[in-house]
Specification:
The chain is α/β, with parallel strands linked by helices. 35% of the residues lie in helices and 22% in strands. The chain binds adenosine-5'-triphosphate and magnesium ion.
Amino acid sequence: MSLHSESVPRLAAALQVQQLSQKKGGKVILGPGLGFTVKAGEFVGLLGPSGSGKSTLLKACCGLDKPSQGQVLLDGQDLYQHLSLWREKIGYVPQDDIIHTELSVEKAVSYAARLRLRSDLPVATRNALVSRVIHEVGLQERRQLRIKKLSGGQRKRASVAVELLSRPAILFLDEPTSGQDPQLEESMMQLFKSLSREGTSVIVTTHAMASVELLDLVVLLQAGQLVYMGPPAEMLDFFDSRSYEGVYKILAKSTPGEWLQRYRQSPFYSYTTRTP
Ligand SMILES: Nc1ncnc2c1ncn2[C@@H]1O[C@H](COP(=O)(O)OP(=O)(O)OP(=O)(O)O)[C@@H](O)[C@H]1O
Ligand SMILES: [Mg+2]
């Protein structure tokens, strides 16, 4: 199903992360020297063991947490120098729920639409968009239910619906499929892929491996370092693993820096340095 609306044109943004390092509590938790490029309209998965820095990296990329060192560029512009320009073109769904509300799904999405969409948009168009995003995330049968009564997975989908309203140029989703059953997980990943084809770059963190092959590219983190970027299927060759889950086992057995070094010497390293 298409989310494209003539009234709200979109143009996907390219993301470049350059020489990034993030320190928290005196400890380096990302980088140093972390970099990669997401081209406009790509659908990219951010993978890695728990605690490897995925959420921290997403927050740095979406303008919420300025890196200690390095740069985040959107369409070649420094994000933190042009935050006000970019803020409304960036969508972000955090790992933890932010919507805990007495409002129904429909009311919550409607209020968000009034806040975020152009005020000259006809009410009928706005209402149609509200219905459409609720439908897209599969909450049409729950639209009258108060959000606090939804299941964890349904609440996550309500957060996604709100972000879909504003047609971001780039959308960051932190584990949007956690708490979803396998069929929903796949249909949400299909939805994100179709968004990427319609003019939104999409970067999603996930622990679910079933839909990994829908991604254009995978960025794999280990202990705050990028140890693979490339097509999902080729990640199996790179790690000599038969399954995606197996890659995590191989990483757990490795010595620190081992895969970083191998990656930097591999042809896949060109993915981190490509121009958008
Ligand atoms: N504000 C902070 N102060 C200190 N340490 C932090 C802070 N934020 C994150 N960390 C640490 O940085 C590391 C990476 O955390 P992050 O939340 O980015 O991991 P993650 O890959 O998203 O993990 P998960 O898969 O469990 O969500 C963790 O060890 C975490 O404890
Ligand atoms: Mg996380």
